[in-house]
Amino acid sequence: MGVVQGLLVSITALSTEISQLESNVQTVDISIPLPHSHTAQILVNPIDIYRVYLANLVGPVTREASPQTIYGSIQWIDSLTHGGLVIVAPKFRLKGVKAAEVAMDLAAKVDLRLRKSLGYKDPSDPTPGQKKFIMEFSSPNIAKEFHTDHLRSTIIDAYLSKLYRSMGWDVVNMNNLRDSGKQFGLLVIGRQRFGFEEAFKSNPLSHLLEVYVTQTHISTAKKRLSMK
């Protein structure tokens, strides 16, 4: 079950038949055949792959509940801080058994831990070493304003880094802040034309952003005129 959601999304998008999907999921160390469920749409919804495997793990512990009931009890939750899926024990509808007792039994008997061997070059032998995973963060352009997409990318990348590291990968995090392209050139020209040393000393980042925006508007206007 320790599989990155993004990989499953890509794999599902490239699969049009169950046999093809099973062949593809093997590349991320998922065992086949895929567990069966009448209501799961594993060819169009990659999260259903998680759900059918989780239902398959839970089944032997709650034998009195039907496979479809178990699958239906596995749902999304509102807060991702508590995980991506939740097993709603009361939905098992087991007679004479309290939901709290079912939950405690599942916690004790179902092993949902990530396998460290997933990050080994040879899953059966750690001697050859770990596979390397390089995660580049948002790498914002230092000549432009930092915005919400950079923050979103950083949060996602941090989560994936921790996930891969927990699976035994050798994770290297990168964040490239050495942009020296067009935007930096505009900033240099704008500072030469509109920069004020007093404003720069007072609030350097705000002043440089104002200079960059002004020079960008001028350059964009000149480009439009030259194309007429």
Describe what this molecule looks like in 3D.
The chain is mostly helical and 228 residues long. It is built from nine helices and six strands; from the N terminus they run ααααββαβββαβααα. It has helices spanning 5-13, 18-25, 47-58, 67-73, 99-109, 148-166, 182-194, 197-202, 204-226; strands at 74-76, 85-87, 120-122, 125-130, 132-136, 170-174. The protein has a two-stranded antiparallel sheet with strand order 1-2. The protein has a two-stranded antiparallel sheet with strand order 3-4. Strands 5-6 form a two-stranded parallel sheet. Mean pLDDT is 77; it is low at 1-7 and 9-14.
Kindly summarize this structure in a few lines.
The strands form 3 sheets. The chain has a two-stranded antiparallel sheet with strand order 1-2.
Please supply descriptive tags for the structure shown above.
228 residues; disordered N terminus; mainly alpha; two-stranded antiparallel sheet
Annotate the secondary structure layout:
Layout: H1 5-13, H2 18-25, H3 47-58, H4 67-73, E1 74-76, E2 85-87, H5 99-109, E3 120-122, E4 125-130, E5 132-136, H6 148-166, E6 170-174, H7 182-194, H8 197-202, H9 204-226
Parallel strand pairs: 5-6
Antiparallel strand pairs: 1-2, 3-4
